[in-house]
Amino acid sequence: MLTQLTLRERHLELGARFAPFAGWEMPLQYEGIVAEHRAVRERVGVFDVSHLARAWVEGPEAAELLRSVTTFDVTSLAAGKAHYSLYCNETGGIEDDVFIYHLPGDRWLVIHNAANADADFERLRAVAGGAASEVTPETVMLAVQGPDAVRLLGSVLGEGFAALEPRDCAELRWQGTSVLVARTGYTGEDGGECIVPAGHAQALWDALIAGGAAPAGLGARDSLRLEAALPLHGNDIDATTHPYEAGLGFAVTLDDGAPFTGREAMVQAKAEPRARRLAHLAARARGVLRAGYELREPGGDCALAVLTSGGHSPSLRIGIGMAYLPTDLAATGTMLEVDVRGRALPVEVVRRPFYRKPKG
Amino acid sequence: MDYETPEDLLYTEDHEWLRRETEQADEVTIGITDFAQEQVGDVVYLELPADGTALTAGAPFGEIESAKTVAELFAPVSGELVASNAELEDRPELVNESPYGDGWIVRVRVSDAAELDGLMDAEAYRAQLPED
Questions:
Q1: CATH 3.30.70.1400: which residues of chain A?
Q2: Residue A53 to residues A2, A89, A110, A216, B128: CA-CA distances in angstroms?
Q3: A97-136 residues touching B, CB cutoff 8 A
Q4: Cβ contacts (< 8 Å) between B45 and chain A: which residues?
Q5: A228-244: per-residue pLDDT in tens?
Q6: Domain B10-123, classified CATH 3.40.30.10, yes or no
Q7: A200-225, pLDDT tens digit by residue?
Q8: Is the torsion defined by CA of A53, A58, A63, A65 positive or negative?
Q9: The domain made up of A275-350 is a member of CATH 3.40.50.150
Q10: Residue to test with chain B: of A21, A34, A38, A317, most B Cβ within 10 A
Q11: What predicted TM-score, i.e. pTM, was given to this entire model?
């Protein structure tokens, strides 16, 4: 039985086509993946991301408790700031990637991937006990992304939002309720994410749509994050990959000396030369890359790696993908070949991200 | 949802259409239907065989890739591929924008005209579209 979104009727009215995702019935697309992708790159789109699991850890011990289970030194995070972090296991494998919001009054909100929601909450509960609580079903989470997103959120939510800098978070009063907002997202665009009580979700959604946001589904969310080279847990990172080979060293703090799950493995991994790295691949002939396709050296017949993600980039109009490659083959400019159902498609290792938004 | 289904075409269960060419009586133009383009979503790439390739009715002859999926194209009739739509190389989205016009996919010289008799007319095709 799939969990239905609070705003399901609104999505249906807008022509959503649904697909199951991590136990949720989610909008895959409305007008079409490419049109929604372009709307976010050129204007503004709104995603219902209520499937993301949301949990609080509260109290004076909250920062230390979170530090003990995540890789980033959250104790350095000032109130009003949000940061990306990881849950790792003892061998340094990535159990989930998370966003942590530090709100005033020793309140910490953690955003988990839907597929890992239960295990993640158990992890928090194990260290924080009653200081951890889940708020997923009582709230709706909307991501508003694109070059016009900050202006739109400012006009809908007011000055409180307009004052935020990137990666700031805050609790605002809006229409008699409390809305959690952050200048964060998963598209490579500017924008924000809002968590609103379910009873006010429709009003916020309607205001965003009326203000010009295009409804966007999981299809566009995936093509946008892939262009931005943002990893997807379960595809590009998982319990068998460690943060450094995935290019996520920025989410790991070792120099504070504080213990956290997986620290010893990470100290060792950091000191050793990396055997492989997550490489970014751009097709150099027409064709679409898909997760699961095999990579080999040009003309070779031995699989070097399997694409962890792949798709068509609507912005670049080429196939793009990611794969863990032996370090000597992960250098920018290396030419390889992807087996596209029996056809050899040339690909080049490129720098991340695939798409960078124009300055200005 | 109402899908366009022009009366002058023949249709297959795989949601392809065929147009008999008036000036070349043994040739047909083939594309995918309005319903099919809607189901497949934004078309981003087509993998098509070279001109002259022999097609066998019912066998896959190419692939159509959309933003979210890849689908096989099945030959609705046997024959020789005489042309594929070169416009689609740069503008695959024509399959979505104009499935019965500029988004045509291949032209085939039919080897056995009797195979055309087994295809559906517009009315029969409409009757087997899922109601939505």
A1: 51-113+242-272
A2: 15, 20, 8, 19, 42
A3: none
A4: 286-288, 312, 319
A5: 999 999 999 999 999 99
A6: no
A7: 999 999 999 999 999 999 999 999 99
A8: negative
A9: no
A10: A34
A11: 0.92
